[in-house]
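Following the same procedure, backbone shapes were mapped to integers, yielding the entry below.
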Amino acid sequence: MICRHCQKENPESVKYCIHCGKPLDEPERQTPPVFDPHKEEGLNDDWSKPVEEEKTEVIKPAKKNSHVPVLIALGVLVGLLVIGGVVLVTYFNHQQEIQHQQEIARLEQEKEQEKEARKKAEEEADDLQDENEYLEDRNDRLEDRQKDENESEDHYQYGFEIDTWYKANYNMALRNAGDYNATQTGHLRKDEQIFIEEIISGSNGSYWGRSSSGDWVCIQDNDYDYLREE
């Protein structure tokens, strides 16, 4: 249907022009006749006033609610904040747990190090005690050796032990002095024992021993060993 006001095409089902908003079925007004007071007496004086066009209310599209996107954005923001808070809390809890485990591991390591140090100190103390005992034993042995040497010096003359028993390897002559030319005082049989108290050196590389009875007997010379220690 063509609007007689704006001359634009409109669908058949509408009553108002979708372009200018005026009614499509409004009858066309005819031009009023020329006023003739002689012919048209008694007519209303307002008949010549133009007829006011009927105002057609144009239906405007409803406005969209502008608050909805803002609310959606706020909801998304709040959700992100909540998720971020949960992530942060989880992260901090995880970090605290890691620090707690590290602290436990550090304490365990310190305990182990302290244990090792205590064990090492005990071992060192034992080693020191063993060393002290060894030194004490060594000193005792040195003292005993020195004592034996001192006693040996007292009990040896010319490398022969004195104040001990000897046994004859041959039949020997006993004399009144430590010399081959000394006067003979008796005899010493083979394998007979004699107690020697003193030893002197004589001629021909000989060594003479004085018995407890005062007699002298040759112990050794360059040729023979006449006595042997028991």
